[in-house]
Amino acid sequence: MNPASSQPFTPPNDYSAEPPPAYSQYPERQSAGQATTFVYNKLSEVSHDASFRKEILKRVIEVHNTMVENSADRLELVWQNDFTARYPKLDKWIEKKLAFLDNRELINFAFASSHLEEYYQAEDFCPGKVDKIRIDFFRRYFSLEGKNNGMKKLNLLESTEIIFQRKIASLRAALQDEPYLEPIAASEQPPYCSQFNFPVALKVIGDASSNWKALARTMCEIFPRDEVDKIDSECIGNVTKALLTVLNKIACSGKRTEELVDVLKQIGRTDISERLQKALQSI
User: What 8-state DSSP symbol labels residue 99?
Assistant: First the structure.
């Protein structure tokens, strides 16, 4: 008899203490050079467009800054550091004198002034922090508009009825400080939205917020089904935000505001269609 056959049976150990294989797609320990190559290769898979990759990297830095607890681990983007250093009075004015704006008013103003994209960038940079979103948005806004035009456009808060009577005094008091703030030159902006009247669209079509899906689906050449679903998911039931997102995308596709007159009729909002037509004719 084979002596080994008389040994008692030992069941296999399914909970081995042996470490897992060394291979991992995301190794825990690697050099900075290896990590850089890995990240860059992944970034290249996303897009070959250098300007798009630059925007992604900028947003990654912004997300990193919001996640780290130690301020020494944050990375300052050049434009942020540059704005605060070059325009300290304007920066402090943004923080103090525009604090009367709540988030609903801010997003409406961002759309009316054709800067909804800058609002979303600020929102990505400061998720859930309303005060910081407002400050970050206006830094971006004035960097593009310059001081003179930026101050002038702030009057949209009153003319498009974004703010109510009790806040108008705060707006007018803030605008009186303009002569004491540093000058800032405007940056060249893309012309693709120039045919769209954002203030009129906000004031008139803003009443169609509950119809945003119908509006988007009617313009299916701009909004494929997955795009509508994406907007629905990102806006999480905020129909005003969803409508502004849809209108902004329509504007940035090169459409004219007049083209929405017939679209509104198609979705059963003849009342808003007629108001839009009258508003555009009165300009």
Answer: T
